[in-house]
Amino acid sequence: MVTPLLHGAKDKVTWKEAKAFAQGICQWMANDDPERYLLNMSKKMRKGKIFLDYLRNDRLSTAVALLSPRARTGATVSMPMTWAQVRGDLDPKRYTVRTVPALLGKTKAWDGYEDAASSIKPAMKKLADKL
Prior knowledge:
Layout: H1 15-32, E1 37-38, E2 50-51, H2 100-104, H3 121-130
Parallel strand pairs: 1-2
């Protein structure tokens, strides 16, 4: 998931704060629906679940960029999706360097993204109140 954030001085948070917030959100999601989500990166534990990787929220961490092809058979691509597209029958092999160009014109994954930016601080307070 990608979330646009405001950059103003009053909205500024440290990398440590942002990572702790991401971890808290992921933990909350995993606790709320453990049959669907998990935080453990072990591939054998992920079967049929969505791995919530909050560890990418660190200044020195790397992540797969949008539309990056993977160096594996079929050349699958990191594809933007809406939550409605994330279903049990989702087949990552459908998104390849050959199929994605045609699919990009149909995706709604980024609709409204630029207008959605907001401060992270109210969300951090709300999460802290829940925990």
